[in-house]
Structures are given as C-alpha cells and as structure tokens.
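User: I'm designing a mutation panel for Protein kinase domain-containing protein and want to avoid disrupting the core. Could you give me a predicted structure to guide residue selection? Please restate the sequence first so the numbering is unambiguous.

Assistant: Good idea. Sequence first, for numbering, then the predicted structure tokens:
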Amino acid sequence: MTNSFQEKLGQGGYGYVYKGKLRDGQLVAVKLLKNLKGDGEEVINEVASISRTSHVNVVSLLGFCFEGSKRALVHEFMTNGSLEKFIFKSNISEANQQLRWETLYNISLGIAQGLEYLHRGCNARILHFDIKPHNILLDQNYCPKISDFGLAKICPREESTVSMLGARGTAGYIAPELVIRGIGGVSHKSDVYSYGMMVMEMVSGRKNIEVEVDHTSEIYFPHWIHRRLELQEELGLRGITNGEDKGISKKMIIISLWCIQIDPRDRPGMTQVVEMLKGSVEALPIPPQANLVIPHVKSPRSNYRQQLAAAIWCYFNNCMNLSEILS
C-alpha cells in the first residue's frame, strides 16, 4: 500500500505517517503507531470514536491494523497536510503560503461545525480532548477536517459532564478544569477552550506563548490582544488589507476570547460559536478577561492542592504570573 513506506508525510509522538495508494487508486495516509500504552488503548479509542462519524469536517477512517505488535490507522489522504504549516511564521515557506483572512475564517468555521457535530450530531457525544493546529488536516480546497481521536472520550449525549482520572491533551490547549478541581466539570466545553486557543493562534500567526517578543506584556497573546480591544487600539495583525479582513480578524478574536473563559459555564457551546461566526461582528460583545480565580475550600490541605494544581496548569500554559496564584 505504501510501496515499502517510501514517502513519509509527517511524524509525532504517536509514530510516523506515510502516503499510500489503495488498489482502486485512492490515496491514503497510513499512520504507524508506536510507544502505545497498555494494550493499544489509543488505537481502539480512535477506531471506536471515528468509526461512529460521518461529517465533511471530520477525517474519514478507511481501515486499521491491530495484529500482534502492529498498530496502524488508514485515513483519507489530505493534500495540504496539517493546519500548523500554514499559520505559524516559522513554518510558512514558499510551498506553504500564508493563508488569506477569508480562508482562515472558513477554516475556523469548518472546525467549529465539525466539533458541533461531534458534540451534538452523533448518537453518542464524542469529546476530542486534543484540538490543536497539528490535528486539523486540510484538503486541496483547504476544507478542514478534525483528526487524531486517540484521546477522545465517548459518552451518552444526555450527560453534561464526564469523569476523568487525569488531564488529557497538549500543553497550551488544555482547559483548566482538566487539571484544577472546583473550577467546573469536564465536558464538551473543554474542547471549546482548546478551539479558542487554536483560533487565537490562527489570528496571530504565532504560538499563544511567545517568549521571543520585545515586551514581557506581549508574551501571552490573549491578554495582550484583549487589552488592545478594550482600548480600541489597532490590533497590528499581519496581512490586513481592507475592511473585510479587519472585520474577520476582530470577529475571530472576540469569539476565541469567549471560548477561553476560565469558568466552563461562561464559554459558548459549539452551536453558539457557529452562530457567532456566521453573524455580525458588531453584535459581538467583548468578553471579560479570562483570569484564574481559585475557589477556597474548608480544608487547608485541599486548598493547597488546588493552588498547586493551578500553578502546574499555569506553568504548562504560561498564561499568568505564578505569584498571582500562590500569593
């Protein structure tokens, strides 16, 4: 299928992805998995999750291998690869041109529609828990598809929260309730947080945490951009050429700021996010700045654990000064 693994498309902590072709001529991406936990839980998880789906913004699983030590997934081939190649300045080359604002908007809308389907459109609700640019694939027309369901969790649609034994996801995109108890329950709103952080990176063209900026105040982009919005200052974004581009970028920023609110109850659901994206930017109120407040509990030991968990989450997300939490 892969002609002895001749053409490598990419790699990650999971293993390698190779380009292949089926007997009928259809191109595929074959993901060979390594360093799996237990009995290959991640493979079973992905097959169980993605086999339940059928949506234009969710990647199609065409087959899998689960034989002995061999673990592989066969997906539809996506011509333009992952989103991260097109949004971060360090990754953009002549081959991967900077995307226009209209294209970025359509990608953000497509991802939102895919997540809305996973949360509300399936017989069982699927929580992804690893939404990030690397896991968004683009076809030849830059239509986005959500991929990599290795950390996904399937739950009944009527359940609003799920129980979790530990945090899931990638540093920088993990919702605080996955680490800090007492903020709120783990639910589909955790994916909303990850989506908001990702859209913020699409807008800025940089990681949300950028240590190589000129001013310390600019290190955490969401706080910096929120302050500019409140003061009605120029946002200083790249590639803004007309009023339409300006409106698109502002809309994406405001929606992403709503999505990364610390309290899950303050975040919109993905259905509301889709409606906001399709609506007018003038109708969108600017949300309050997302600040972490640790709820006090009666037990000093429990409160210490809460503060320690908050410090760990902030360390991995670099979102605020630790002294503000531990004081």
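For picking mutation sites, this is relevant: Confidence is low (pLDDT under 50) at residues 320-327. The chain has two domains: 8-76, 84-292.
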